[in-house]
Design a protein that fits this description.
- The protein has 198 residues and is mainly β.
- It folds into two domains: 1-163, UDP N-Acetylglucosamine Acyltransferase, domain 1 (3 Solenoid), CATH 2.160.10; 164-198, no CATH class.
- It has strands at 5-6, 11-12, 17-18, 23-24, 29-30, 35-36, 41-42, 47-48, 53-54, 59-60, 65-66, 71-72, 77-78, 83-84, 111-112, 117-118, 123-124, 129-130, 135-136, 141-142, 150-153, 158-162, 171-172, 178-179, 186-190, 193-195.
- A hairpin with a 2-residue loop joins strand 25 (186-190) and strand 26.
- The structure holds coenzyme A.
- The site of coenzyme A has 11 residues, from loops.
- GO terms for molecular function: acyltransferase activity.
- This is Acyltransferase.
- Pfam families: Hexapep (PF00132), Hexapep_2 (PF14602).
Length: 198
């Protein structure tokens, strides 16, 4: 596989690990100790915080902001200007007015499981988990964990459907199961969770 391709204007800390075949475009920033896997693509202005772990074939679109200590598994997509936050009750200063520094607060990372996608300008509140192959609609604000394969939308984000591994909305068949019109794969719903595919 090819060496990583890093634009001259990108700011990649020397301590960050960048996998083969990964492309980092103009003005993107990758902070210290961050780890990016193979064949990732970071668009213009994307930000990856210190120590963030990113798997293989992950796409961060332009100006996507991933704050530490987020974990993005393989095949994750983060849309343009989406934000994965890390502080539920943010403050610049403490009660006495002094500047808060690293160590004065505890960062809580977002976890995005394999194959999940986050739409443009969505916000994920600190500490939430986006399940495998889930899809977060454009502009959603995720305040609760998102189950595997769930399609969530709105503010706050609610489940409005299911999507399969191909990212296409599943259709319910006569037996109550869920079928992907693209791949023909079928899934089973039980107690608000989807399992499969078969
Ligand atoms: C959520 C999404 C997958 C739905 O697509 P779809 O299944 O084709 O849905 P439709 O456009 O037929 O809309 C179905 C309903 O959901 C609503 N809807 C669609 N997108 C929505 C969104 N982002 N937030 C809230 N509601 C949304 C529509 O208004 C419509 O409501 P209605 O039935 O009351 O009229 C899609 O709109 C979306 O947000 N995709 C992510 C796009 C993105 O950010 N891409 C990033 C790369 S640029």
């Amino acid at each position: 596989m090819t060496e990583p391709r890093i634009a001259a204007t990108a700011d990649v800390d020397p301590s960050a690990k960048i996998g083969p075949g990964t492309q980092i475009w103009h003005l993107a920033q990758v902070r210290e100790q961050a780890v990016l896997g193979e064949e990732c693509v970071l668009g213009r202005g994307a930000y990856v915080g210190p120590g963030v772990r990113v798997g293989d074939r992950v796409k961060l679109q332009n100006y996507a902001l991933v704050y530490e200590p987020a974990v993005l598994e393989d095949g994750v997509f983060v849309g343009p200007a989406a934000v994965l936050t890390n502080d539920v009750y943010p403050r610049s200063t403490d009660a006495g007015g002094g500047l808060k520094r690293d160590g004065d607060w505890t960062a809580e990372g977002v976890v995005v499981r394999a194959g999940a996608s986050i739409g443009a300008r969505a916000v994920v509140v600190a500490g939430r988990t986006i399940g495998r192959h889930a899809l977060v609609a454009a502009g959603a604000v995720v305040t609760r964990d998102v189950p595997d394969f769930a399609l969530v939308a709105g503010v706050p984000a609610r489940r409005v459907g299911w999507v399969g591994r191909a990212g296409v909305t599943l259709r319910q068949d006569e037996g109550g199961g869920w079928r992907c019109p693209e791949t023909g794969e079928t899934y089973t719903e039980h107690d608000g969770r989807l399992s499969g595919p078969r």
